[in-house]
Design a protein that fits this description.
The structure holds two protein chains of two kinds. Chain A has a domain at 65-124. The radius of gyration of chain A is 28 Å and the shape is flat. In chain A, helix 2 packs antiparallel against helix 3 (99-124). Chain A is mainly α. Chain A contains three helices and no strands. The longest helix of chain A is centred in the middle third of the chain and has 28 residues, at 65-92. Chain A has helices at residues 12-35, 65-92, 99-124. Chain B is mainly alpha-helical. Chain B has helices spanning 2-7, 9-24, 30-33, 36-51, 64-83, 89-96, 109-127, 132-152, 157-188, 193-205, 211-228, 236-243, 246-271, 284-306, 311-332, 345-369, 387-390, 392-406, 412-426, 430-455, 471-486, 491-501, 515-519, and strands at residues 370-371, 466-467. The chains are: A mainly alpha, B mainly alpha. The interface between A and B is medium-sized, with 13 and 18 residues.
Chain lengths: 130, 526
Amino acid sequence: MTLADTDLHSYLPILILFFAAAGFAVANIVLTFLIGPRRDGARKSVSYESGMNPVGTARKRFNVRFYLIAMVFLVFDVEVVFLYPWATTFGNLDPQSSHAGLWLFRILFFLLTTVVAYLYGYRKGVFRFD
Amino acid sequence: MTDKLALVWPEIWLFVTTCVVMVVGLSPDLRVRKLCGWISALGLVVAIGAAVPVAHAGGLFPSITPYAKGMIGVVGLMLLPLLAGTVDRDLDAAIESGKATFSALRSNRAEFYAFFLFSLTGLMLTASADDLIWLFLALELTSLPTYIMVTISTRGTRSQEAGVKYFFLGALGAAIFLYGFALIYGATGTTDLAEIAAAFRAQSEAGGLNTIGVAGLAVALIGLCFKIAAVPMHMYAADVYQGAASGVSAMLAFVPKTAGFLAIIMLCGAVGWTHGATHDSLPAPIYILLWVIAAATMFTGNLLAIRQSSVKRILAYSSVAHSGYMLVGVIAGPGSGHGTFWDNGIAAVLFYLLTYGVTNVGTFAVLASIQKPNGEEADDIADIRGLHGTRPHLAGAMLLCVLSLLGMPPLLGFFGKVGLFTSAISAGEIPLVIVLGLNSAIAAFYYLRIARAAYLEPADEHVETRAGPIPQRVFAAVLSASAVVLLLTVAQMLMERSVTASGYHAPHAGMADTPHEALDLTRADD
């Protein structure tokens, strides 16, 4: 089955859905514009109506450490994402198979690379909070 | 699966080296940190050693990997001394004079060398790709580190601008060729390159190629134009090459270009050179597309290079033009397949990549070896005026390298260019050969202008240039210039290797039904 011999008519519902979604969005904006009440004013146009007053500039410096911690977290996250499919497949592997050792070696190699990522983070001083 | 693992041992060794460099480069001891370059070199030597004996088990170009990975390793080794001292120079100097202490967050050495090796790993993976997904991931692994290398290569804002520009256009290019890959998958129902080739073959025997497949190939090729800096995706080249440090520019001129050409060769191989109406060539839409891109790239690169006053920008546009030259070889195709070097366009491209990579290091290394009083690297053509009087060995290296880039006999670049000419002639591409010849003549203008500035013009009084404090870069320049001459002694062997590497395993239509019997050579020992 390739794209060339796909029946394009079967995509008609998606096209209808697309137009329905676009129509809904446009209709809401147009209707609000037509029938919505308009009471503008200084109070009404602040950033958070009935909320706190925004004070100061939005360009505030924040600690670069957040970014480093997010990266270290990402390493951990990706590691777990790869561990799941490996774990489900490894259980089904025939213990007598010659592949078992190779499969174990592969995931150990992969885990070793994440250890390197942590070692790098440690040397870079990500875990030093001072 | 195991055979694929055997194929990627060079990449695994490079990756292991990367891991070591990443940690060693953050050592508080300066002497340990300075080992980064040596460890990278060792890793590259091991990778070359692991690459050369292993040939691909299957795929469209079964023997491309030893040559391609050997070439990548050798040029990588030449780039290493050129990259020395690119990052952390201020920090190291401040530490040595006792003004500062080592701060891991301010140091970029570990990342710089690690990204360099990552990029070469991706490039080697591109050479062994046999699948569209693998190809895409390898291309991205090649490119992503280079964006960061451009940005951190100098401390100025110019390289940051260059890095951002390069990144966004690179992302656009990647999106375009990924879209092309998706269309190819849609048209053939597989991501395996050999199976795609078989599916295309079956379609063409059944009455014509699938339109969506051809459109996908065209889109993918246009996206790959970014990697090789060809028209219409060449705009970034001059700004990025100028903004980055010379070492990184030299790397950009070789690494993404080689990745792009390997991918283009594989994609063209998937559709095959057997579709022409009058003579064997690529299918008409792809043929016309590549023809126009090749001609436009050659003219754009050369004509824009003439107007530049910055040597780096001249070299950037000449790099654009060289992509156009090599596309001629891609259009010519592998010829009869069992011919000599002289009628094999793919072998010519592979050989040209080697000569261009080796030569190009020298031109940028000369620039990197000269430092202006304000600490920046030489860039303007005024900076190299009268170089012969002050530093004759650098001037000599520059002369040899630009003459080789120009294709002056009997230097290495000449043999690369002759291969392109003869293969295009034997494929019957006479108009393209004329364009190629015309452009080689235009190129002479700006290459000789560089040589004239270095040899014949007196140094400007107000431009005071002094030798950079990094002897490794001078070594890289001299090494590259000697390679331009010394590799001539083994040119015959290199050409034979490139012919072997271009061995094209033409698909046959029956393969689509039983692809695994045809490809999986290690099945017996399971």
